[in-house]
Amino acid sequence: MSMIIHFANMVFKPIINLGAAPMMMIVLTLIALCFKVKFSKALEGGIKLAIALTAIGSVIGVLTTQFQDALNAFVKSTGINLSVTDVGWAPLATITWGSPYTLYFLLVMVVVNIIMLVLNKTNTLDVDIFDIWHLAFVGLFCIFCGANLFVATLLVIFIGVLKIINSDLMHPTFADLLGTTAEENPMTTTHMNYMMNPVIMVFNKIFDVLFPWVDKYDFDAATLNKKIGFWGSKFAIGIYLGVFIGLLSHQTPKAIFTLAFTAAFCLELFSLIGSWFIAAVEPLSQGITNFANGKLKGRRLNVGLDWPFIAGRAEVWAAANVLAPIMLLEALVLPGNKILPLGGIIAMGVTPALLVVTRGKIIRMIIIGAVELPLFLWAGTLTAPFVTKTAKAVGAFPTGVAKSTLISHSTMEGPIEKMLAYLVGNASQGEIKFILYAALALVVYLLIFIWYAFQMKKRNKEYAEKAKENA
C-alpha cells in the first residue's frame, strides 16, 4: 500500500506544486476524459472548478482579514476565547484535495461502489466525485491521529458502504419531497451530511412519542421566508454578525459598518460560488452516468448527486436562517468549543438531513437542529489542528489569516465520523482506553444505523403502497 502512495506522490507531486486551483483543473479534466467526455466540456468543467476555488479563497481572505482584529478584541473584551477561524467548507475541500491520499480514497470508493452494484447490494451509482473529499477527510484525520493507512482505509470503507446504503434508503423520500415517484425520479445522494440521519431519526421518534402535538403548530416555510424577506437573507445575517462582533469588540461605528457589510457580501458570495462547484462537475457526472448506462443496460439505477438538487425546498433555507443566530449563541457558551461561526454560519451541513428525516416539519427541524449543532462545533474544534497543519503542508492556508491562527469549519458535514476517526486513530496507538472507546463507538454507530435503516424501510413500504393505490 505504501508503494501505491509513493507512486501517487511521484505522479501527482508536480501537479500539486502548481497549487490547488490548477491541480484540480487538471485532475477533473483528465478524469472526465477517461469517461469519454468531450474535451471542450471536460476542460470547461476543470476551468470552472479552478475559478470557483480561486473565488472562494479570495472571499475567505477578505472575510478573515477584515474580522481578525475585531475577533482579537472580542476575545479580550468578553473573555471568550473562540480562537479557531471558521473558513467555511470550500477551503477545507481544497486542503483535502491537496493530499494524494484523497485520490487513493476516491479509487477505493469507486471500486467499492462497483462491487456493491455487481453484487446487487445497492442500486445507487455515486457520481458525486467532488464530495468524496468529506470521506477522505475522515481517513486523513484518522491517520493524523495515529492510524496507519490500512486502518484508515477500513474506516473509510465502513462509513462509505453505509453512505451508499443510506442513498438507497433515502431515494423514495427524495422523490416524495420533489413531488414525483421513485420510479420516475432516479435522484438520490451519498453526501456525508445525510449520515446525521440516524441521530436525527432518534430525536424525531422522541417527538412522535412524547411531543406529537408540536406538529399542530407547524407552519409553511415558503410563507415564512417570504414574510421575513430581506431580514432573513444571507445579506441580513451577515449584517447581524458584523454588528454583533463589532459591538462586543468595542469597534468604532465606521469599523462596525465595515464589518457588517463585509460579512453580508461574503455570506452571499459563499452561496453563489458554491453553485459553481456543482456546475463544474456536471460534465464528469454525465460522463459517468453514460458509461454506467452503457455497461448496465436494462437495470434501473439511482444516481447519487450532490445534495443541492433538493435545495428548492423552502424548509432548508428557513431552518438555516433560524439556526444561524442559535448557533452563534451556542458557540459563545458551549464548553469545549473554540470556533466562532463565520464561513459556516449558514448551516447547510445540517438542514438537508433534517428535511429528509422530518419530511419538512419545520418546527422539528429547528429544535432538533439546535440540539445537534454542538456536535458540529465540537468536531470543528477537534479537527482544527489537523486542518491547519494540512493546509500549510499543501500550500492552501488562506491568505490574510495569521500563520499562528488555527482554522476549521463550524458546520462541516460528518461530525460524528470525525469523532470516530479521532477515536480509531488514537486507538491504533495501543492505548487500552481508546481501544475500548473506539470499539464501543463503532458498535453504537452501526446499531443506530441498522435501527434507522429499519425505520426507513418501513417508511419506504408506505410509499410503495401509496404508489400502488394511486396507480
Automatic annotation (TrEMBL):
This is PTS glucitol transporter subunit IIA. InterPro entries: EIIC-GAT, PTS_EIIC_2, PTS_sugar-sp_permease. Signal peptide: none annotated. It comes from the Bacteria. One of its GO terms (molecular function) is galactitol transmembrane transporter activity. The lineage of its organism: Bacteria, Bacillati, Bacillota, Bacilli, Lactobacillales. The chain crosses the membrane at residues 15-35, 47-67, 101-120, 132-165, 228-248, 255-279, 339-358, 365-387, 434-454. The keyword Phosphoprotein does not apply. It is found in: Cell membrane.
